[in-house]
Write a structure and sequence with these properties.
261 residues, D-Maltodextrin-Binding Protein, domain 2, Fructose-1,6-Bisphosphatase, Chain A, domain 1, Inositol_monophosphatase-like, 5-stranded mixed beta sheet, alpha+beta
Amino acid sequence: MPDDLDLLTAAAHEAGKIALEFWRREPQIWEKDAGAGPVTEADLAVNDYLAHTLLGARQDYGWLSEESTDDPARLDAARCFIIDPIDGTRAFIDGQEGFSHSLAVAQGERITAAVVYLPAMGLTYTARSGQPALLNGKEIRVRDASLDDADILASKAVMDPANWRDGQVPGFRRSFRPSLAWRLCLVAEGRFDATLSPRSTWEWDIAAGSLIAECAGATVTDMHGGPMRFNSARALVDGMVIAAPPLHATIQQRLALQPRI
């Protein structure tokens, strides 16, 4: 029987094949309720495949996915899959390459195995708890920088002065990528210095990437500097700060005491 990471990796690669069958081919699109964004027939096809494959292999695991109705039984499971079938759906719809499949296993509140796969770019990020993070089989590491010189992946919300002490936004450069999971991985491989979110983030967006970043040497916390906890009843984390330890410490010092969540 494959271990959890091998299982996730094989499933992610098959999911990529499914997604690419719809990519740039005008898939059907629906808008979710309450302004939750678009979903395509590709998201649903990938989700169905992953649920069938992963739960078929691990019938005692819980299941948390952006595209599945939440089953509270997952809270009682010792281990739980946390899945975003397609992270960056808007990029997928637009025909951009920067969408990913984000697959993770939580044991209790902690992520123990993780894969983020970008099929259009041929990028496979993987991590096992306590081992180095890998990109296409090669070890990756975070890089450090001063805050004012840092290149940080974040949405426009991070530039709100209310998120920073004394309303002073540091002089870092803000960059953006459509897949939140990929942002964490780009920090893990040292292509960017940090990623931030002052707003609550869904677990399925960051579960896999959080372990990959951690195994690459990043400090990974919520916006208050606390540990991320997964498979929670709300399925939300109170924002995130992910960076090499010295830069992470500086960011936490400069953030407002009560950041806007």
